[in-house]
Design a protein that fits this description.
The complex is a heterotrimer of chains A (about 575), B (about 450) and C (about 270). Chain A has about 575 residues and is an alpha/beta fold. Chain A has one domain (about 55-515): TIM Barrel, CATH 3.20.20. In chain A, strands 1, 2, 3, 4, 5, 19, 20, 21 and 22 form a nine-stranded mixed beta sheet that branches. In chain A, strands 9-10-11-14-18 form a five-stranded parallel beta sheet, with helices on both faces. Chain A starts with 6 loop residues before the first strand and ends with a strand. With about 270 residues, chain C is mainly beta. Chain C has two domains: about 1-115, no CATH class; about 115-265. Classes of the chains: A alpha/beta (about 575), B alpha/beta (about 450), C mainly beta (about 270). Strand 16 of chain A pairs parallel with strand 8 of chain B.
Chain lengths: ~575, ~450, ~270
């Protein structure tokens, strides 16, 4: 693919870059041939950013944007398109859907929000060609995908036998085969149990047949991850998601990271990333006594420095839930009776999809809304706390600007709270009304670009405006020195960037998409010496036919990731 | 030296077997032997050797005869015809790879067409049921490794999906089903004594067209209520026994076919089957799967869902957004109601499969067929454009009936000068952009693939 | 009140998508302006004036606007769709989506209608003197929120899928119906004065169905519980009362399970 050539100067904006401790200094950002540089010639195209905020392109650490379950969500929900889709006009193509947008709308909307990198949060390995087909049809944004490992038969067998090296060798093989990025774990053991209609709600519940526990799976994969020295840590969706009183399981899972040391060359400091923590921070023992335990959970996260989290904020929309946590989706369907799709995947994982309406007038939903925001507001380290909505589970990613508004503006939170039918019950079950904190732009930049880039081991490429970085630069129409008193202006500024430069090309001006960009697929290539046992085990699972596809047809072919950005990892055994 | 190619995908049914072994000639031009495939699959491979395969587009002349023309002329005609039409209909994709389906989406959007696929006359009702009620399903390996009760409802894989029962559903020994058929209880629900029904432990020979009532009876029994003595021609005792078997299964798998989708009520038969599957998950594990017909007919449902959000019947004529409502935007309805003014038939045979009145309406307007072979739709067309055969002389991704993507190989070289579906559609798209003086939209990731090297030969034809 | 009369001047080659033929779109416009309102024929942009002569000016609001189409609209879709007030009268047939997503006002079709009449309707009245094709008062594909309110009266026969996913409102079929009445419904009332082939109330959670004629094939999930005397749409009669669909989930109210009710004239 042709490299992007040319010079751009983003002039006179308030620069915010936590990676360089820059907070609102007026400076120019120079771009040449796709990279940020010290200076450019007079011939550079100038973007006037005077009176506007300039940040690195956004980095989304966790979003469901491509692959089989996302597409099931699109397929089973025509009503998510009716009267709810965008209106296409040149040069963009049609963009369809609200909660589960089409790939085109996904790329356009992220770009309009000034995001340059998005991590697809769960790739079933056998479906990897599908994930990559969707990724290469998604315009503008760079993407990577995390294969799911937490219920994989090979992983469970090696861990059961205490074989970390074999676990690591298998992970290395699968990352190469699927062109994946790192280790995703969804409801460890529970999804495997779901294949027989069961679940693991506690860390010590045994997985049927495999004689291994969620505790062992988490610990084993954490060790294997550090053995390999991958850019990202294990990325964990814990057991017992979404249920009242689940926070002790959450804390027990987080505690597994205590004493574990990182080993990597990518600047990553955490050994565990705990995703959509909002869904795991509940007290009470029923929906009647349901309450937020965000404070308790964040007190632990704040002091345990080797973990990172993302929020999974509920945005109070009609959306579509989708997760590899198969038993959870079945449970959710039993609560709301809406259509339920399920995909159990041989040897590897499962997934479920159920539409869901989060209503501010339904008390548990309103408590979930408060819980997500509380997590961020109790955070003492924005570089370890990232803004997500677990798109589209707690709300679509197009609501990030709304979440930012709520976090930056107490008045806007109080307005939502006051509009709730049973706000007194919500106040009883949460602490949101007692929190005065309003996050500033520096903290928002840490939570939406610099922090996630570091957590993913990508801080040499994304999340900062240092010379040498990929030139992803967003300009937002917000005056650092004179922030708007109307909170809606914060949301609208982040929803439609004044300008977005992606890999050195201007792709958005005044919130409108101008170009389809030069997107890349990012994947990790662990270089590890061949492990004969793992090779034999993998081969046998295909020749004995436990897999129903051929071994040579399993790895993703090169042409499906036509513009790869491969991160090599030399594994020191 | 002839060459052996292994783990080849088969371009026949929705089982999309990828364990075929093909021996090809030293020069990669001829298929010599095909192993492991069923007889239909074998014939599809062998057919690629046919020396009479069309190598050039053919245009209908004023006297009614067909005359060979060069590809650029055919591409120009197709682009102009579709742009000129108020509402073209593009139908087919029974034998196209996913790359071709993504490419055709570009020309459909550009020309304001309705984009539809064979599901519209096959498993379209299954989509309608999924819209209304979801789809608790799994990959075929789950059925193979775990299912101890397998229900074939309105389908006859012994004929329609010849290797399905040996690879996935009845005979194979899986991880938790090491005794194979011995370990499985097979139920067949079919008004006919099919070869699949003959294999079943219980055959419920229901009255044709009463599947919905029978599913309701199953659900009512499962909920613990009484039912009438006979439902849909089946005795209460038999229904109660069948429900008991399904409820006590460790893993119950329901496969359904056109017997459900093409009798009265259509989508609601599947709708009820999905409800039954869901109910059974309160007792045990149960999954359901559509027996999709062609090797990549699940493909358009996937590709177009990620591009437009809909699997089929996609009306792009509004220009700003896609609209889908089968019953209105479905091919046969559009044709019967005389609602389209150009027809493009791709990798399928509307000439053979549509009602005659529908074909008569379509024939009033320009009729273009894109297909590697001669078929009824090519013979009644105004323009027939041959392409390579996806899965034989063109590789690509296909989606098996369980939506697992399988990366098919090409086993022989394509006919010189004959483009793939993707190449053809991309050239038509570029021509449309030239004609409308607009910029083509290539997602950057596609730009390396849009001008394959071997296409220069095409233009010299 | 002001009346706008549209007189068809030609038959569309394809189908005319006349989303703008509603009192809401006409309100405040004169005949000349109405003639310029946009419609679609396939991908071509056309106007009302291309297919109709327009006479009379609209009222200031939708509620003060009556539309009369003095001729046949067999090939015209979306008449009165999404309207909130006023009236539309068609002196002939109409195609699909008559009164779709309608919120208020009245539509009177003096001929037949095609499918999706009153789809996802929320309020108002639709009267069809002739027959209706399929999907009268049904939900849009995939939506569990079907017809919520209003009344649809079809004087002739209707096809399949009447009131699918219905939540409220009333549908009256004075003739016969084919199959699938109130499938998946969670409310609302359907009255069929003629016969129904079958599949009445399948997967139905809540709501009411009255059938005056005969149901050829009864759903096995419906159970007869008693006999009641009722007055239904002006007719007094004795009905056999069934509850169901017993195979489907049902909510509980005050400790008692709530079923859907089917009344079949005894």
């Amino acid at each position: 693919m042709s490299e992007i050539k040319g010079e751009i100067l983003i002039k006179g904006g308030f620069v915010i870059d936590p990676a360089q401790n820059i907070d609102g200094d007026i400076a120019d950002i120079a771009i040449k041939d796709g990279k940020i540089v010290e200076r450019v010639s007079n011939a550079a195209k100038v973007i006037d950013a005077k009176g506007k905020v300039v940040m690195a392109g956004g980095v989304d650490v966790h979003s469901h944007v491509a692959g089989p379950k996302v597409n099931v969500g699109r397929l089973i929900r025509p009503e998510d398109k009716l009267f709810k889709s965008g209106v296409a006009h040149a040069p963009t193509r049609m963009e369809m859907g609200f909660s589960v947008p089409s790939v085109l709308k996904t790329g356009y909307d992220y770009a309009r929000m000034g995001y340059g990198f998005v991590m697809e949060a769960a790739m079933p390995p056998i479906h990897a060609p599908h994930v990559h087909e969707e990724i290469h049809d998604t315009p503008i944004i760079d993407e990577a995908a995390l294969p799911v490992f937490g219920n994989n038969w090979f992983v469970m067998e090696y861990i059961q036998k205490g074989e970390i090296e074999n676990t690591a060798a298998y992970i290395a093989w699968l990352l190469r085969a699927t062109k994946g990025y790192g280790i995703k774990i969804v409801n460890p053991g529970g999804t495997a149990a779901w294949a027989w209609g069961m679940n693991c709600l506690d860390l010590e519940d045994k997985v049927p047949y495999f004689d291994v526990t969620p505790h062992q799976i988490l610990t084993g994969l954490m060790q294997a991850n550090e053995y390999l020295g991958l850019p990202h840590s294990i990325h964990v969706h814990q057991n017992d998601l979404g249920n009242p009183g689940n926070y002790p399981v959450t804390l027990a899972s987080l505690k597994l990271a205590e004493g574990v040391k990182t080993k990597n060359k990518f600047g990553r400091e955490q050994v565990m990333h705990s995703t959509h923590l909002q869904f795991h921070s509940y007290g009470g023992d029923s929906w009647a006594t349901f309450c937020s335990k965000a404070k308790e959970v964040m007190d632990y996260v704040n002091k345990q420095k080797n973990i990172t989290i993302d929020l999974g904020c509920v945005t109070l929309d009609e959306t579509t839930t989708m997760t590899a946590d198969g038993p959870f989706e079945h449970h959710l369907h039993a609560l709301n009776h809406l259509k339920w799709a399920n995909v159990d995947v041989e040897m590897e994982t499962a997934a479920g999809v159920v539409p869901y309406i989060y209503s501010k007038d339904v008390v548990p939903n309103a408590i979930q809304w408060a819980t997500g925001l509380e997590l961020a507001l109790y955070s003492k380290d924005p570089m370890r706390t990232f803004i997500t909505t677990d798109h589209p589970n707690a709300g679509p990613f197009t609501r990030y600007p709304r979440v930012i508004k709520w976090l930056m503006n107490k008045k806007s939170r109080e307005a939502v709270l006051a509009s709730m039918k049973k706000s007194d019950k919500v106040i009883d079950a949460t602490t949101i009304h007692t929190i005065d904190r309003e996050l500033n732009l520096y903290e928002i930049a840490a939570m939406t670009r610099t922090g996630p880039a570091k957590c993913l081991g990508l801080s040499s490429y994304y999340g900062s405006l240092k010379p040498g970085m990929i030139a992803d630069v967003a300009v937002y129409d917000l005056n650092y020195k004179d922030m708007p008193s109307d909170p809606e202006k914060i949301e609208s500024a982040f929803l439609r960037a004044a300008a977005f430069v992606k890999s050195g090309e201007i792709v958005v001006r005044d919130g409108e998409v101008l170009s389809h960009g030069h997107k890349k697929t990012v994947w990790v290539n662990p270089k590890m010496k061949e492990n004969p046992q793992v090779k034999r085990d993998v081969t046998e699972s295909f020749t004995k036919g436990y897999y129903t596809v051929g071994l040579t047809n399993y790895p993703v072919r090169e042409y499906l990731a036509p513009h790869p950005f491969v991160i090599d990892v030399d594994v020191e055994a | 030296m002839p060459k052996l190619i292994t783990q080849v995908g088969c371009p026949y049914c929705g089982s999309s077997c990828d364990d075929i072994e093909v021996i090809v000639s030293d020069d990669n031009k001829k298929i010599l032997e095909v192993h492991n495939a069923c007889i239909i699959g074998t014939n599809l491979f062998m057919h690629a050797n046919d020396p009479t395969r069309p190598k050039l587009p053919r245009m209908r002349q004023a006297d009614g005869s067909m005359k060979e023309i060069a590809y650029p002329e055919a591409i120009d005609f197709m682009a102009k015809t579709m742009l000129a039409a108020k509402k073209p209909l593009i139908y087919g994709f029974g034998s196209t790879n996913c790359e071709g389906m993504a490419a055709v989406a570009r020309i459909a959007e550009k020309s304001g067409a309705v984009l539809d696929n064979c599901a519209t006359i096959c498993h379209g009702p299954s989509f309608l049921a999924m819209f209304d009620n979801g789809y608790p399903s799994c990959t075929l390996g789950e059925a193979k490794n775990r299912a101890d009760v397998v229900v074939f409802w309105g389908c006859n894989p012994m004929h329609a999906h010849p290797r399905h029962t040996s690879r996935y559903s009845i005979f194979p020994r899986g991880y938790f089903t090491s005794k194979g058929q011995m370990q499985r209880t097979i139920l067949s629900v079919d008004p006919r004594q099919t070869d699949t029904a003959k294999l079943a432990d219980i055959h419920l020979m229901l009255d044709q067209g009463h599947d919905y009532e029978l599913f309701d009876a199953f659900r009512t029994v499962l909920k613990g209520y009484d039912i009438p003595d006979v439902v849909a021609g089946i005795k209460k005792e038999t229904i109660v026994k069948a429900v008991d078997i399904m409820k006590k299964a460790r893993f119950c798998m329901i496969f359904f076919g056109m017997g459900c989708t093409h009798t009265d009520g259509r989508n609601h038969n599947i709708d009820a089957a999905i409800s039954l599957t869901r109910d059974l998950n309160n007792y045990t594990k149960c999954s359901i799967m559509a027996m999709r017909g062609h090797y990549n007919i699940a493909g358009p449902g996937q590709v177009w869902s990620w591009i437009f959000g809909f699997p089929y019947c996609i009306d792009l004529s509004k220009g700003t957004h896609a609209h889908m409502n089968p019953g209105e935007t479905s091919s046969v309805d559009l044709a019967m109601r005389d609602e389209v003014d150009c027809f493009v038939n791709i990798g399928a045979d509307a000439g053979a499969h549509f009602p005659i009145q529908a074909v008569q309406h379509l024939k009033k307007h320009p009729f273009i067929t894109v297909d590697p072979n001669f078929n009824m739709a090519s013979e009644i067309a105004d323009l027939h454009i041959p392409v390579r055969i996806a899965g034989v002389d063109e590789p690509g991704v296909v989606y098996r009936m369980d939506n697992v993507p399988i990366q098919f190989k090409a086993v022989i070289d394509g006919l010189p000068g004959v483009p793939s579906d993707e190449e053809l559609f991309d050239m038509v798209y570029e021509r449309m952009c030239e004609l409308t003086n607009t910029q083509p939209v290539w997602i950057a990731a596609k730009e390396d693939r849009k001008h394959p090297a071997n296409i220069s030969a095409v233009n010299e034809a | 009140m002001a009346t706008v009369t549209l007189t068809p001047t030609k038959t569309p080659e394809l189908m005319l998508e006349a989303n703008s033929v509603t009192p809401d779109a006409f309100a405040g416009k004169n005949a000349e302006q109405i003639a310029t309102l946009e419609c679609r024929e396939g991908k071509t942009h056309v106007t009302i004036g291309d297919f109709f002569t327009v006479s009379g000016n609209a009222g200031a609001t939708a509620a003060e606007t009556d539309i009369v189409i003095a001729g046949d609209c067999t090939r015209v879709k979306y008449i009165g769709s999404k309207m909130t007030a006023g009236t539309v009268t068609v002196n002939g047939n109409a195609d699909m989506y008559v009164g779709g997503w309608m919120k208020g006002g009245k539509i009177h079709i003096k001929g037949n209608v095609d499918s999706f009449c009153g789809i996802a309707m929320e309020g108002g009245e639709i009267l069809v003197d002739g027959r209706a094709q399929n999907h009268v008062g049904c939900a849009y594909r995939g939506d569990w929120r079907g017809m919520k309110g209003g009344t649809i009266r079809i004087k002739g026969d209707a096809g399949n899928d009447i009131g699918t996913f219905m939540l409220g409102g009333t549908i009256i079929i004075e003739g016969n119906a084919f199959i699938h009445v109130s499938t998946h419904a969670e409310g609302g009332t359907v009255i069929v004065k003629g016969n129904v082939d079958g599949r009445v109330g399948g997967q139905m959670v809540k709501g009411t169905i009255y059938v005056f004629g005969e149901i050829k094939f009864m759903m096995p999930g419906f159970k007869k519980v008693d006999k009641v005397d009722l007055e239904v749409d002006g007719t007094k009669a004795t009905f056999d009362h069934y509850i169901g669909d017993l195979g489907e989930r049902h909510p509980k109210s005050k400790g008692k399970t709530v079923f859907a009710d089917l009344y079949l004239k005894a």
